[in-house]
Amino acid sequence: MVLKVGGITMLLRALIWGAITYFIANEFSTSNLWVVVLSVFLFSVPISLVGIYSSTIHQIRRLTLFASHGWLFRLLSGRPLKVIIWIAWAVCTSFFMLVQFHTYSRLEWVTFFLVIPVFWVTFLVFHRLFAAELKQYLVTEMALVWSRRLAPLVMIMIYVVLVGHFGDTIAYSSFREAIDAQKTVMADMTGSDLIREVSRYLAIYDGAKDYVLGRMGPQDLLWALTLLGIGSFVVYYNACTILSSFLIPGKEYRRVFGPLTDSDEVQPVPLLRMTAIAGGITFLALFIYVPMFAYLEAWVQKIPEENGATEIIELGVEQIGDHFFHEGTLAQVQNARVNALHKVDVSIAHLEGSADRAFDRIEGNVDTYLDWYYSLAGEYTRIAALLVGELEEEMRKKLAETLQQGNAFEEFETAFDNTLASHETALGEYEQVAKSIMHRNRVDPAGASFHVVRRMSLEDVLNPPVHQDIIKLKNRLSASGGAGAAAGIVTVVVVNKIVAKVVGKSVIKIAAKALLKVVTSKAVATGGGAAAGALGGAAVGTIVPGIGNVTGAIVGGIIGGVAAGVTVDKLLLMLEESLNRVEFQQEIVSVINEARIEFKAELKGRSASL
């Protein structure tokens, strides 16, 4: 029951902590230095407390070996060194953990927050295991220690599995390309000079990691775990340490500040000791912790000031529009553009797949058209059209109607709209990153000797052709369908193009000529059938009273002619189908495949045929 209530309390605290962590991560690297100082402090306090508490419990266990408290006991019971080590660990790792959070993708955030249930389940298992045998004051601490060791390892394996199935691993051609890509991701980390400087080294680490991971296959799972474990273990370990602070009873924290004792009930800390501790913490926070960050910020700020003039003189500058920037700015902008284009390429790949499925559906309708073509209904429709001089137009119209069945491009139209939306988002993100890169690298070379090594217009930088071709395709499709084109217009446009190509290749004309050649043979066969029908009808007239031989012959001739004509037509159609259907189908399918190739080329802006 106690664990159940504690689990609910822990869950509420963990959810609040998760929300605060996500908020701080979004503000940490883009805000002023005071936000950095406060954020690191908030993360360091629970890590320090849990670490000091853990070392205190371990120290109590060792000191239970002593029968008397002499000089050796006093030497080993000292805690200042352990306190200093844990505070240093908490401050340093919290800082780099918060910097790392800024680069997290949505998948990495989801994985990170899975640490809450994983840690809680692990703690429950160890708590039940130790509760049966250990002293009461050791149970919670031992369960927390082993949970902090095991849960991060489990999280690393979960992370590898999720990234392997849902992540987007890029195979970079070189370390430099991978590092430059990471620099682009961190381009907006400009809240303070300290953050900016640290982000450079983080880009090297993350870039090297991405480069190696991009070249690993499923057989390299162990190496992937090792590589990810270098940095990820610290993040997950600190997260588990913070979660541990929610599970340590409030009274147990007295052990951190009070005398060492193995008693299950810890006495309150004396007021005089509390006063001394509060004074010490205040001194550390205000006179060591805060000035340390201020000194680091001031030291980092001197780095660009000392190297700036030399960089202009020795390396030159780059010009974008009317302004000047450090050399390498355009390379960073180009990397940002590559990332934007990569997102576009991914969405176009999905669009190509949707287009292939649409053309497959159109190709499937060819059999429906040929079934009509080699049917009696189709035959008589063509003959009627031939009589009024509209044979080719009727065949063209029927082919278009049949190929349009099922609105083959309905899925494509939805994917097309989604692709345009994702392209707009990618372009907006790129523009923000490009502006941030230029803001960070802008220089004023006035009064110094410099030379321009590269130039580019501001319009070319901020408005790359990320999705101009696909917008042109959308405009052409809309224009082809007329103003206010409704859903299904892509199917109409593509089918009309296919039909036009079929006509252009004279496939329909050849079929029309084949019909004209068959008409004569049909007439002869039908005439013979009519004569036979007349004889049969005359015979019927002599048998049936009141009809007469002449009337019977006429009626019989009509019946016989119709029956013979239909029979001959069906037989000739079956013969024609067996001889020509496959070839006719291949002609139409080849045209569809040509249209498929041209349409997919249009998606990448390589053609203008639509």
Task: Tell me about this structure.
There is one protein chain. This protein is mostly helical and 610 residues long. It is 78% helix and 2% strand. The protein is built from 21 helices and four strands. The protein has helices at 2-28, 33-63, 71-76, 80-101, 106-113, 115-131, 136-166, 175-185, 193-214, 221-245, 254-257, 271-315, 329-373, 376-387, 391-403, 410-441, 458-462, 468-481, 489-504, 507-543, 549-603, and strands spanning 317-320, 323-326, 442-443, 452-456. It has a four-stranded mixed sheet with strand order 3-2-1-4. The chain is elongated.
Give a quick rundown of the structure:
The protein is an all-alpha fold and 610 residues long. 78% of the residues lie in helices and 2% in strands.
H and E string: HHHHHHHHHHHHEEHHHHEEHHHHH
> Separation of termini?
71 Å
Number of E strands? 4
The largest β sheet comes out as: 4 strands, mixed
Basic shape: elongated
What integer is the average pLDDT? 73
- Sheet with most strands: strand arrangement: 3-2-1-4
Secondary-structure-based class equals mainly alpha
Helix-residue proportion = over 70%
Q: What radius of gyration results from the CA coordinates? A: 40 Å
Unreliable segments of 5+ consecutive residues: 305-315, 481-487
Question: What is the overall number of helices?
Answer: 21
What is the multimeric organization of the chains shown?
single chain
Strand content: under 5%
